Amino acid sequence: MTTTARRICPLCEATCGLVLELDGDTIVGVRGDDDHVLSRGYVCPKGAALRELDHDPDRLTTPRIRDGDTWRDVTWDEAFAHVDAHLRPILDTHGRDAVALYQGNPNVHTLAGQLYGRVLRQALGTRNVATASTVDQMPKHRSCAELFGDPLAIPVPDIDRTDLLVAFGANPLMSNGSLWTVPDVGRRIRDLQARGGQLMVIDPRRSRTAAKADQHVAIRPGTDALLLAGMVRTLFDEGLVDLGDLADHVDGVEEVDHALAGFDADVVAPACGVDADVVRDLARAVAKADRAVVYGRIGTTTTTVGTLASWLVDVCNVLTGNLDRAGGAMFPNPAHEDRTGRPPTRFGRWRSRVSGHPEVLGELPAAALAEEMTTPGEGQVRAFVCVAGNPVLSTPDGGALDAALAELDFMVAVDPYVTATSRRADVILPPPASRYRAHYDLAFAALAIRDAAVYTRAPLPLPDDAMAEEDILLRLAAIAQGAGPDVPAADADDLVAHRLASQLASRPAARTGERTAEDLLAAVAPRRGPERLLDLMLRSGPYGDGFGDAPDGLSMAAVEAAPSGIDLGALEPRIPDVLTTASGRVELAPAAIMADVARLVALRDAQSDGPLLVGRRHLRTNNSWMHNLPHLRGTRDLCTLQVHPDDAIAWGLSDGGHALVSTDDGAVTVPVEVTDDIRPGVVSLPHGFGHDLDGIELDVAGDRPGANVNLLMSSTTLDPLSGTAALTAVPVSVTAA
Ligand SMILES: Nc1nc2c(c(=O)[nH]1)N[C@H]1C(S)=C(S)[C@@H](COP(=O)(O)OP(=O)(O)OC[C@H]3O[C@@H](n4cnc5c(=O)[nH]c(N)nc54)[C@H](O)[C@@H]3O)O[C@H]1N2
Ligand SMILES: Nc1nc2c(c(=O)[nH]1)N[C@H]1C(S)=C(S)[C@@H](COP(=O)(O)OP(=O)(O)OC[C@H]3O[C@@H](n4cnc5c(=O)[nH]c(N)nc54)[C@H](O)[C@@H]3O)O[C@H]1N2
Ligand code: SF4
Ligand SMILES: [Mo]
After folding, report:
1. Model confidence over 658-669: pLDDT tens digits?
2. Which domains does the chain have, with CATH numbers?
3. Sheet holding 733-736, edge to edge
4. pTM over cut 0.90
5. C-alpha 463 – ligand 1 centre gap (Å)
6. Could you read off the pLDDT of 583-620 as tens digits, one per residue?
7. Taking CB atoms and a 6 Å cutoff, what residues make up the pocket around ligand 1?
């Protein structure tokens, strides 16, 4: 007999609701949840592949220890004893910084990663922490921290009420949205156009989203910041600046005008490879639309000027009065946390040992991991803990990192697969599959187009031989703190809950009344684990029940009773409450960014010819994983070099033939796909491939492994304000192979 269970899809930022059909322990079907408050029944091929993912025969279910060149399956106790025996001496002898931690993308898609990732980080106490943020969105955190005070105050396009969406370097019809939780985005775009609104897309490729757009601007890669600066210039010069209701809340407008003096549309247009009129018309369109929003994603952040581009996106929104109003760029108000009144963020509190990169949000650049491992001296990294990450395939100069991992004294991976990265581990600790896990999206509730609270229980109880990922992280944390391998996860969890309750009891914005930490813990008893933390957060949050003070408010009990989610309404203006800058105002011209504008001048004047490499994503991929599912990956080769027909002729390439793509850092040979969807002079390769290294255990992915584009990327070409690697607009040479 089959049963059904609702489960939030953990595979991308859209956070769709799924209905799993279960036969005993087996998922036999997956469909979209028609009642889900955000996704309304939408499901993409990846979500539908959750069945294949959960039941993938290559998934590990038992911890393993390396024995020379082979692996040995062990019990959980043996695995943690092994970690303790090897990690502790390194910490004791060489200090905290001798252990590096990398936290990959799926950490924001699990309750364990969101609620306990920080616990492990604090327990390790190392400065050598990197996450996928510095190969992704860190520039947006930096610019929002500068503009609004809070790195998590990221405004999102209010797509359902806008008249004009201008998207830079984003392909939501493939990615399903990013830094923007917008499930069912295709229908929302169609609805926008049906009500007379427009979509404009700035992308060197005619992406799936660009193909649906009312206007597509095929920009030269890496120059979005210049184009945006030209738009801002136009706003000033044509008298189109109109802050509307924001006027009383913004400082620095004149400074921005002054700083961008040299960026006339005529000046930037040649560098961007577009007509000056296109730049001016974009600015006019944004200014003149009743409600418009400018949005930038991966093509704008993963460049040497990622923070400047991210800042300029919001400068356009502010100057046209479109920030914080319906149909513009709005701040979600997530139910789990009221962040008002926090101190402004500080940056550069410490620097990396080898290259002196400043810390950003407590992190150092992922690109600098390898040099910290291979450069001898005091503070050299000797051990590595990698949680839900595959940096050999996802970070620049992945080959150098791979070589560095091989030389480490010790490595632990928390990962369900033996990947390009985890194959280097001494111990692999596999988390359970999705059907055994509860879910709530903390990160994405703060980026969603409507406020909503959605929790789904674990569809099935955890098998006896499996360990919850939060317990894996808690036991690692206990080891890191010197408490040994045998501390029960439940004891460590009590400490975590107590710490959170204490913080909430003393945080003015938390709805806790006069209650003490003990009162709060008593109120959420007998819950444990993630649900206890979540109950504390939801009840003290902006929509919370205040532990009884507002009985109709949110609590775990309320979200448990509504597995398709609780809609908390359309986004509402949040300025000035959302602002945590020192001035309490939007600081449009922050000092760090003003100082960085000089590099934009250099970019404007640097004319490179020769091909530039950009990335892309396909609906059927998920960064470096999920390539191992036969039905999902399909029969087409997804790791191809897209080349314009004119370039193919000039470079002697043919469709289906092979090209050698090289940089100073490395070379890959890849199949060629000739297409006029790409701007001449630009080539595109997706990331996350290269599953052919010795020791990887991905049977399906391995027979069509693709090439690791990050072998071409430089680990030293970064956006200095965010430590984010330049993964697009990379100069390459291309020849027939
Ligand atoms: N050249 C280039 N490089 C890029 C990008 C690009 O555009 N171009 N994009 C970058 C971006 S945006 C990102 S986010 C990064 C991603 O880079 P990473 O975060 O390093 O890697 P992922 O490919 O997401 O790999 C996630 C790993 O987590 C494992 N995993 C899956 N589910 C779970 C789970 O529940 N628990 C645990 N513990 N592990 C799990 C998977 O098996 C996989 O090994 O890649 C970046 N790299
Ligand atoms: N199916 C699928 N969905 C995913 C992922 C996945 O791997 N597969 N990964 C998830 C993750 S971790 C993230 S961060 C998001 C990313 O979400 P998006 O940012 O929407 O990602 P992409 O689909 O890579 O779209 C980026 C677009 O930018 C263009 N581009 C490249 N360089 C430039 C440039 O210099 N300027 C401009 N204007 N455009 C440029 C590319 O051609 C591409 O079309 O996607 C998430 N969703
Ligand atoms: S769009 Fe994202 S969240 Fe929705 S089903 Fe697909 S992978 Fe899952
Ligand atoms: Mo990402």
Report:
1. 999 999 999 999
2. 1-55 (2.20.25.90), 60-136+349-445+455-487 (3.40.50.740), 158-324+580-601 (3.40.228.10), 609-736 (2.40.40.20)
3. 730-731, 612-614, 682-684, 641-643, 667-674, 658-662, 733-736
4. yes
5. 26
6. 999 999 999 999 999 999 988 888 678 899 999 999 99
7. 104-106, 110, 132, 135-136, 298, 302, 387-391, 394, 414-417, 419, 431, 469, 615, 623-625, 687-688, 709-710, 713, 727
